[in-house]
C-alpha cells in the first residue's frame, strides 16, 4: 500500500534472486517493454530436471536497456533454494542459464556483440567472488566459458551481485571485470571473513535493515 504502482515514479529494474525465483517476481516487477525492446525474456518457463531437480515453472528474466551512454544488463543468475536435487544453487543455475548453448548465454552474447562501443554494466544475484563463508563465491559463474568470461570479453565494466549479505569490492582479474557484492539491503548482515578472490576491500559492518 506504500507503493501502489511499482515503477510509477522511480524506474526499478531488479534482478531475480533465489528467494524470489517464482512467478510473483514477474508480476510485482513488470518489465515487458525492456524485455521486448532488447529481445530478452520475461516469462515463466518449465525447467526440468537437471541434477535430480523436480520439474518446475520458474522465471526466465533477462533483458537490457540504455540510459545515456551506458547499457545495463539485468540477468538471471539464480535458482530456487527449495529445489536443488543432487547439486546446489550454483550448479543448477549454471546448467540452466550459463552453459554456452543456453538461451540466456546466447542472447547475452548476441546483445553484447551489437553494443561493443557502449559503457556496460551487469546485474545478477549469485556472486562470482564473495568474501562470506556462508554464501560463498560461485565457481560455476567464473572462467572463460561462463558468465565471467563472456562479460570480460565484451568489456563490461562492472558486475553487481547480491546473495551474500555484505559489501565486497573485488579488483579486476585478467580478462575479467570488476565485481561488487552489495547484499546488505534486505537481511541480517553477515561477516566478510573469506578472501577467495581478487579482494580489494570489504566492509564487515554496515547500517541497514
Return the average pLDDT rounded to an integer.
88
> What is the β-strand count?
8
- What is the helix fraction of residues, given as a range? 10-25%
Strand content: 15-25%
**What's the helix-strand series?**
HHEEEHHEHEEEE
Distance between the termini: 19 Å
Counting helices, strands and paired strands, the structural category is alpha/beta
| SS field, number of helical segments | 5
Biggest beta sheet summary: 8 strands, mixed
Q: Rg from C-alpha positions?
A: 16 Å
Principal-axis shape equals globular
Question: What secondary-structure arrangement, pairings included, does this model have?
Answer:
Layout: H1 23-28, H2 32-37, E1 41-47, E2 56-67, E3 70-74, H3 89-98, H4 103-114, E4 119-123, H5 147-153, E5 158-161, E6 167-170, E7 178-182, E8 199-203
Structure report:
The protein is 20% helix and 22% strand. Mean pLDDT is 88; it is low at 200-209. It has five helices and eight strands. It has 209 residues and is an alpha/beta fold. It has an eight-stranded mixed β-sheet. Strand 2 (56-67) and strand 3 (70-74) form a beta hairpin.
List keywords for this structure.
8 strands, alpha/beta, globular, 209 residues, disordered C terminus
Can you describe this structure in just a few lines?
This protein has helices at 23-28, 32-37, 89-98, 103-114, 147-153, and strands at residues 41-47, 56-67, 70-74, 119-123, 158-161, 167-170, 178-182, 199-203. By secondary structure, the protein is of the alpha/beta class.
